[in-house]
Design goal:
Shape: elongated
Radius of gyration: 23 Å
Number of strands: 2
Order of helices and strands: EEHHHHHHH
Distance between the termini: 56 Å
Number of helices: 7
Structural class: mainly alpha
Largest sheet: 2 strands, antiparallel
């Protein structure tokens, strides 16, 4: 339940303003501010329901966290081997099964998984079609 705060004139403030007072929406400039923002986000997402003010605040704060993390703690893209291994695990599929389903030779799949070979544009297309994903999840290099 959202607690209403009453101002000096006896009028209730909305939940959005309460959140702004708790943690103002402004660019995040340090890891300490990032940790505080994440605590506020965790508190909000743990609630069974959010009203419109809380949802708006959460949306903007999440964007600020994402921007800070992208600039200060970027996550490198997954290699083709990591992506392929993840997709195989997700489908509980073997290299032999993938070769059978896509027409890509098992030796090529094995070489990609060990990092000895890159995927070709054609192979990326076959994998994207089979796994029903966007081709740009793989890092085609000419």
């Amino acid at each position: 339940m959202t607690r209403k705060i009453v101002n000096r004139k006896g009028k209730a403030r909305d939940s959005y303003l309460e959140l702004i007072l708790r943690f103002p929406l402004r660019p995040i400039r340090s890891d300490q501010e990032l940790d505080q923002a994440i605590c506020v986000i965790d508190d909000l997402v743990d609630r069974p329901r959010l009203n419109s003010g809380q949802r708006d605040y959460l949306d903007v704060l999440s964007d600020l966290v994402e921007k800070y993390e992208e600039e200060n703690h970027p996550i490198p893209p997954a290699s083709d081997a990591e992506m392929l291994r993840f997709l195989l695990d997700l489908r509980d599929l073997s290299q032999v099964g993938l070769a059978r389903e896509t027409g890509i030779t098992e030796s090529t799949i094995s070489a990609v998984l060990t990092g000895k070979r890159q995927l070709t544009r054609r192979q990326i297309g076959l994998l994207a079609s089979f796994f029903q994903i966007e081709p740009d999840l793989f890092s085609f290099r000419a």
